């Protein structure tokens, strides 16, 4: 008796799959031509499509030809140049790191290039375009080298790569904001340009950077076969004769050259290098880098042009001047990043990131550390009251407390004490929020800012500040709370897939953070595009002009949430271990997580409404507290609160005194102080993972 085996049915073929790689490239090219045609019809003038169509036949008006040559064609070619450069740069970075979330943005390449250009402008250097491109290249190279070194080339886990890139980008943005605040006149217009602007007055940038981009693209295509082999793994590629180290170095260098050229033309247009390769990977029938690299460049052009078209179609032609299209690409990139985070689950070494290992501390040691922190905080408060653009003496402070100072000193100290208290309360709130977030994420490298809570609170507060400039503190706190709650809810719901993965929570939080930052930039440039000082001061965190009533919400949040975290301390201890232990011991995971995250949202929102966006406090203070007193939350929380208050207080005093009468926002100082510590944490994490 014989049996017949039925062949499996042939896989269904889609029209795109039947086209093959060449057909997909031609179809994408046709889509680019169509998008370019639509793009040419948009603008601030009344010149429409029919006027442009009559130009080749000599029937058009001279005004239409002038607008075409002077405005619309340079803008279109800038979009094409930037799209090709960023698309190919993202594809190269993702290939060499074998990481789908690598891009010029997540590796801080664009941030490094932007800082270099802003620094040159701040110091009055009017550089030729070619030298500006070289300067941007050096800045991007330095940033990429740091991030790739910290993340071991991106091969040890997506979470490590994103955290390293986010921290480096935050530090560079803080430096850039500092430069623009201190040199406001010299850097006029750079705030909007910092989100990517296609506004061009001539073709100089495109004609100088275009050949460089084409040469880099040609070099990347020539290296395509070796990049294909590299995708099989380092060992296999080495056996097949590929010098892996050299290939990875040259591919990274090419990607940084492309990203720097794009920044030179239009500023840092966000997340095109992330979106374009992802879209290409979804297209069927496309294989091999010699096909995917040019196709990724075309898709990058589509992303940039479609974003610009959508921006002007929704908000009008003037929006193309006021609002950078990089805001739209960042929003699109945030969506793609969230989708990738939900699809890919990181199981690298950052699943259990290291913390400083210390022996169990005795109760006496804990009390000693806590007392020392309290004494240091008292000293920082005393120093903060003395220091500023006008220094006072200790005796003057005593007389002020007793009501015996003159009018001048009374005015100075009456204005100073709300600032000092705002720094103390905001630092304490952010540290307590960071303690809760790190327990929920089981990641000492996380903080409220990483989960998008801080940026969400910033969106709510800046929206109210723009709509109602004279709004009181309670409406401001409510707006910040609403923004933070919405951001936290979005992150939590998107992170939930039959359970809560700490890696997924962090990655989605970074995506939501990028989206909220883009929305904030859009609100500012639409409402008051020239008032960058207000925007930068708020986004950098400042205690300037604080009033006593503005401190009430933060104080109330601390009174409500700190006892809640203390009550949950044992559950948080178990939650920080793993997913299974607390379940076995009967801990209600989701209620505990929601309570801890809800408390951190309340603390973060009130802190943002009081002093603006201050970063790194929620990262540094809890981690330093664990190093001093051990991992138990009953001891970590009070020490972290004291350290957070101490850090922001010292940062505020330093910012008020180091270049007085000019001031550096406290958030910039904390970012500059926190970045080296964060770099050390990541380097330590990598060293332990390599053992």
Summarize the model shown.
This protein has helices at residues 15-40, 49-53, 62-97, 109-122, 129-150, 158-182, 190-193, 204-222, 224-230, 234-239, 244-266, 272-282, 289-315, 319-322, 326-343, 363-386, 394-401, 407-441, 453-467, 473-495, 502-527, 532-540, 552-567, 569-575, 580-584, 589-611, 617-629, 633-657, 666-690. With 691 residues, it is mainly α. The chain has two domains: 32-343, ABC transporter involved in vitamin B12 uptake, BtuC (Orthogonal Bundle), CATH 1.10.3470.10; 364-444 and 541-690, Orthogonal Bundle (ABC transporter involved in vitamin B12 uptake, BtuC), CATH 1.10.3470.
Q: How would the global form be characterised? A: globular
Classified by CATH, the class of the largest domain is Mainly Alpha
Query: Could you say which structural class the secondary elements and strand pairing correspond to?
Result: mainly alpha
- Mean pLDDT reading: 78
Please give the largest β-sheet.
Answer: none
Query: What name goes with the CATH superfamily of the largest domain?
Result: ABC transporter involved in vitamin B12 uptake, BtuC
The tally of strands reads 0
Tell me the β content: under 5%
Which architecture of the largest domain would the CATH scheme give at its second level? Answer: Orthogonal Bundle
Report helical residue fraction: over 70%
By CATH, the topology of the largest domain is ABC transporter involved in vitamin B12 uptake, BtuC
Along the chain, the helix and strand elements come as HHHHHHHHHHHHHHHHHHHHHHHHHHHHH
Identify low-pLDDT runs.
1-12, 346-360
How far apart the termini lie comes to 60 Å
Radius of gyration computed on alpha carbons: 27 Å
- Number of H- or I-type helical stretches: 29
How many individual domains?
A: 2
Membrane topology: Multi-pass membrane protein
GO biological process, one term: siderophore-iron import into cell
Protein name: Iron complex transport system permease protein
Transmembrane segments: 20-38, 76-96, 116-149, 161-183, 249-280, 292-315, 327-344, 364-386, 420-441, 448-467, 473-494, 506-527, 547-568, 594-621, 627-650, 662-683
